[in-house]
Amino acid sequence: MGNWDMGMTRLRMLAIEAIRSWQALGAVSGIAGIGTP
Fold it and tell me: Is the CB of residue 36 less than 8 Å from the CB of residue 30?
């Protein structure tokens, strides 16, 4: 169970970082005028 919990925590951290980088990309492309979903 311990390994599973550690894996889930790592996945959650990766997901948060991915969302942050996606939001940053969206902001940059928004400024550039490139419409991203």
Answer: yes
